[in-house]
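Memo to structure team: turn this sequence into structure tokens by end of day. - J.P.
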Amino acid sequence: MDLLTRMAKPAVAVLCLAVVGCALFGSFGREEPYAFSHATHVGEFEMACDDCHYGEPDTPGMPTLDDCMACHEDLDEGKPPERSVTSLFDENDAFRALRAAALGDEIVFDHDSHADDYVEDCASCHVGIASSRRIVASDRVLMNACTSCHEKSGWDPADCSMCHDEIDRDWMPPEHHLGWDRRHGQIVRCEAEGTVNNCSLCHDESTCVACHRVTPPRDHNNHFRLRGHGIAAAIDRTRCASCHEPDGCNRCHQSTEPLSHVGSFGSPLNRHCLGCHLPLQPTSGGCTTCHRGTPSHASAPGLPPTPAHLQANDAQCRECHIPDRLRHPDNGDSCRFCHR
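Reply from structure team:
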């Protein structure tokens, strides 16, 4: 056995242990989806919702073991226990899947009144349930669906007491206590779904603007003021627009030249072409934002009206107009940006 093989064996063993450990760790505290197929019962056998869901006021009554066994006594014959209908019930013969989409004691919800008086079809709230083959926590109806429906019905979606026992507009979610002042910007920008990330339930845009004009974001330090903000604006200008108007940028840079405008950036080498504002614009957003008196690049010489020039691609342009014959640096962009 060579040295490489002896060294590889312990590494493989450690890797295997790590994979197994991760698999076990990932399974702790996680409940597997319930293997109940609505697609089979509703789609294949065309059962109605109230064939199974009935009998309990204010709740979506769940089927009993006897209800299921009326059909499954013969269907489950010979199946292992984990694949039989009995696996869906606990030791008290209660349907296990009831916990998957439970709303919690804080929620005030009358299922009967919604199903009988306000909703024409169960699928209006339980979207896609008829085609599902597993029951998972994500099947629960989200608050966004409730508030949207309430708003269409003329009810105030901001009236928390309509659906909540204790929560009101002055209630602060638990997430708002754990460094929320540092993290909320990331949540807002990624537009994540879910009630806790829906800032508009309690805040309007003026709240954000009023706060950040007094307390700037944590990354707006001195380095950001001098250099970083230009890079951030180039990546995502909409982030700046949340607080800053375009005339604020223009007003500052007309009197404060960007730090990149040094050395060979300007004449006589004019290497600003290597990082200019493309596509070129005659209005705001391009060079004319600050340099209004500079001759426009739009007056660049046009292509000679010969077939060789009109049909040439950029590689062919550079075969003839080699860098030492150009009147400006070659930044790799298409020649036709300027020469048309």
